[in-house]
Amino acid sequence: MNGFFDIPSDLQHSWFGLIGLHLREALLPVLAGLLAALPIAQLCVRFRWLYPPVLGVTTVFYAIPSLAFFVVLIDYTGQTELTVMIPLAVYSLVVLVPAIVDGVRSVPQETLAAATALGLGPLRRYLQVQLPIAVPAIVAGLRVAAVSSISLVSVGMLIGNQGALGNLLQDARNYHRPELAVNSVVTTAALAICVDAALVGVRRLLTPWMPRTARHGGRPSAARPAGAAAPEAEEAAR
Amino acid sequence: MNVLHYIASFFADAAHWHGYDGIPARLAEHVRYSLLALALATAVALPLGLLTGHYGRGGNVLALVATAGRALPSFGLLVLMFILLGFGLVPVMVPLVVLALPPVLVTTYEAMRSVDPSPVDAARGMGMGEARVLFQVELPVALPLILSGVRSAAIQIVSTATIAAYVSFGGLGRYIVDGLYQLDYEKVVGGAALVAALALVTLGVFWAAGRFAVSPGVRHAGRRT
Prior knowledge:
A: mainly alpha; MetI-like fold; 70% helix; 0% strand; elongated; disordered C terminus; B: 10 helices
């Protein structure tokens, strides 16, 4: 354990600095992905024929390996944080679009009719009825996107030390200090678990009407609006 | 514009088609690692997912295992295993299998749980034993979803096997990592294109497998809803 938190000076960050950098590089893309996914998903809900082609295109994007994506982008954005963040945003988008579409689609017709009867216009109906009911599905997608994003940032080390905590891996080899690699893996995994738990907390805050123990209780899909929403979100864990 | 140009000149170079560093050799290596990792992961995760899904127990433990598996960074795990164990197949297989376990495990479990209970009850009423209920009723209905989980795992393995090159292993990642160090952008982009193409081929293979293995009844029922 000697020198576990003793970060080599070539990384120009303390341990906490690396954690902050890692979170920024991992979570900003997820946020960007969410902001882009919401309108795309809404279009797919409105125009049903749009959904299969969108799903096809995003699946193809998802098949591009992260390292390949990074190195191709170097030509345009250089060896910068942005090069790491753009692919992560695309992957988040791919995970989130089906999650949101399935979540919004799973809102029962009666609920929509009731909202209309109460005098809600399309925009308010979307913001105040459809989105809140879709929150569990959206958060399920966000959890997968955030956790895989945190894991993938480390690969950025290969393109000129843009990997935040992943940069420790290179130093572990250069300086023959295996504890730095242990530090990198443990810290990254802990970050992922913390963010995952935080998102579960956010879901509980946003959906106070749902039973607390619903997540994996007797009925497996109780926490989700419909059984159909589960697989797509779970499937895409890169 | 120039990316396509680089790719074209990479594939046009005859030197990239021969020997131990040629495209056929590297491609074969990549496919071999990927298949081995996928076989190991499904051999563990598929029976576990089928059984827990069938009996409807252990969902919580499964979710915990899946979260832990996802949280472990593949790249970090690879380098750590390499430092601890040295050069070999094990340091490469560990992160790939850890990567592939959660999707197969969770999707298989969810797929088994989402099978309509009435045909299952009917099968029991007809006197089928647990094994026959599992393999002749639940599995065929759950197959499309299970395949999507394995497909997702396979794509992740194919794309992540690239980073094995960082710890002196072969595979298509060699081109990317070597190209980065040699400042040979043509090689980097060519390797990237090869990996992306392989991932797309994997997608196609699973699509074909779905057409072949999923019973027509299930396929058409899925389309109607």
